[in-house]
Amino acid sequence: GSVAKRVRAEAGVQETEGQRTLRNTIAAAHRERDYALAAQLYAELLQTLPAATLPAPIQLDVANHLAQSGRDRDAATAYRLFIERFRSNPSCDDARLMLAAIEARRLGDRPAALRTLAGFADRELDADRRALADALIAECGGGAS
Questions:
Q1: Of 90, 96, 105, 144, which one's alpha carbon is 20 to 30 angstroms from that of 111?
Q2: Nearest alpha-carbon partner for 141 in 123, 120, 114
């Protein structure tokens, strides 16, 4: 299915030595809690490898730092890739909400935000997450769920 296709597609990508070095440096910066450097290097990695993801905790920390520092397009990309790669991660719901908020409120892309929120489908969310999702849907002109 789609997972097998994605695995095959990722397996076909050969990273350069420079890309591997960037990944290692990002991991080292993350270990040292230098999220600014990790985010900067991840943005560089995306320039040459647009679908690059990092291990889940690093990817999420980098996405959060990008969002906090106002690098909205890079943050959206990082969250989107996190959601695509780590669908069963417990932080996926929060990442989806962050992505939708960035798309709607910072990038002004309401259709993209509604597509992102549609990823919740019939999932049960706790009251706070449901309230945020419903507020974003309303802001984007969609019907409340």
A1: 90
A2: 114
